Amino acid sequence: MEQRGIRTERGDMNREIEITNKEIKQLRARINHLNKWIAEESANAKPPTLADVIDEILSRQGQSGLARLKNAAEVFAFLQRNEIYSMEDLEKKVSTMRGKFHSVSEDLKKVNRRIDTLKEHIKHSENYKEHRTVKRQYDKLYSEYTAARKETGFFAERKAQKALDAANNFYDTFSAELILFDAAEKYLRGVLQGRFDPKKLPPITMWRQELGTKTSEKNVLNREYTLLKEETAKVEKIKRSVMEILHSDELVQTTERTTKRPYGMEL
Predict the structure, then answer these.
(1) Where exactly are the structural domains of the chain?
(2) Is the pLDDT assigned to residue 117 strictly greater than 90?
(3) 26 neighbors 93 (Cβ within 8 angstroms)
(4) Tell me, what's the pLDDT at 47?
(5) What pLDDT is stored for residue 267 in this prediction?
(6) How far apart are CA 236 and CA 57, in angstroms?
(7) What is the spatial distance between Cα 259 and Cα 267, in angstroms, rounded to a whole number?
(8) Which of 98, 128, 108 is nearest to 196 (CA)?
(9) How far apart are CA 102 and CA 149, in angstroms?
């Protein structure tokens, strides 16, 4: 159906998972990039202090005073909340973020797979429950035809044909419902195996309760993931400020070397 351009619930779920996986991959790359940068910066003989970072944000060109104050306040709050007072502390924070990201991303994959499975269980269970009356009616009509075929007598063949026509007409009218029921029964037999009982309904209530629990777990993990994205953005702001400071220092050093040329040299 998707190939014919018809959106399906299954397709929407797959697209949601694909988007999630893409975002996870992007955030992993951002955190790994920050970790690599921190490791390189730690080797710097005189890395800028975090106070320098705040000063750089406050003096940044191209932003309004309100925007500079807001950015500086956000970065300062992040540093204070995480007790970051040095580049070494920042390195530890990024390392913790990497570990947290690995845990959250793995848990998200597991919970998404289970939610997907539970939705499939519930969908087929609902089809099984909704269409089993139609299936019973069809089975009754077909059993009447089977019984009529075994009869003998002058009108036996006509009776059997009439019973077959009734069964076929019923099937033509309710073919969609019967196909859904057969697919649901086949699916549930595979899932429940020896526990499948055609006289009983599948454990829909239990699966719905678990789906609710897993959805709550996913919401918690999504909040943790969102927090990691926000923290990553804060560290990226710090990185930008450090790079601005270092770039500024390089410009100053270059200017000093240029202005201290020996007398007699042409400019």
Answers:
(1) 9-246
(2) yes
(3) no
(4) 65
(5) 29
(6) 13
(7) 10
(8) 128
(9) 66
